[in-house]
Amino acid sequence: MIKNWQKVIVSPTTTIREVLEIIDKEALRVAIVVLGCDTLVGIVTDGDIRRGILQGVELSAPVSTIMNNNPTSANVSLSSAELKTLMQERKILSLPIVDDSGKLVGLKTLYDTLVVDKRENPVFIMAGGFGTRLRPLTDHCPKPMLKVGGKPMLETLINNFKNYGFYKFYISIHYLPEVIVNHFGDGSNFGIEITYIHETTPLGTGGALSLLPKSLPKEPLIMINGDILTNVDFAKVLDFHVKQQSDATMCVRDYEIKVPFGVIEGTGHEITNIVEKPTYRYFVNAGIYVISNHIIESLPNNEHLDMPTLFEQKQKVGCKTLKFPIHEYWLDVGRHDDFNKAQSDIYELGI
In this protein, which residues make up the domain named CBS (predicted)? Predict the structure, then answer.
């Protein structure tokens, strides 16, 4: 978000000359016209001023005479990628940002969407599994290193995190670790930092957290399975965790089960209801988590623990455990059918 966006706020009665001076001084090529403190009523660009001058409008006239009084705006919940797409589709360089009540809360430029601030939050990727269901493809290659679209899935996953400013990576390795280490090294060739976590015996997703170094950054950590293909906005997931003051957040997917028969409900021999070919919907674990640092510090070292059990344990002691539904593309590449599907899907994801 533009840090000095408040400096380009003007009222409808501000003169064109004054607006021109503001645009020139702030070098944003745009001014936002509001009523009161926060009601968006228009936007004016240097192009609008130029056209007004050519039409003979005096510089002493109010900016309301030349402003765009039906500007495109965007909700603050939209991701940087979504804002970029919107601006490219509308062929605009600046976009006022509003909250759910329509209050002006910021300004985003197309350039902002191309420049990503670095995030200090660590990312922990589980890449030590045997990939048994994908044999013989995994006989000599760890599953996350199988190529989808000509590139290892793990590399695609890391690049997606990089798009949101993440650069501190911890990778859990066990099966054929040299394949991963030889490809990524310390991460410097990929513009990131990598620390490898060697599991001598598989500890489960939760247990692997206990192997992370004590020097781990104190910011919440994102954890993900290394065989997931997704274009999830990881920054949005992390921001939710922080805003909600969650201790542990689990990303979930909406999953449907369609029963092709009539389902009979009843007590004993008595039929109480017949539901014809019902659809049941559930939230299922998507293998993506955000874990606060104090949770990691509380774990016993080197003990097997899966993530559902970790969430249950922490919930029982009063920790705040939340679910975050994801609606973006997501595929757990665990079977041959999934692997084949990923080969065609990768080209439509923009990752």
Answer: 1-59, 67-123
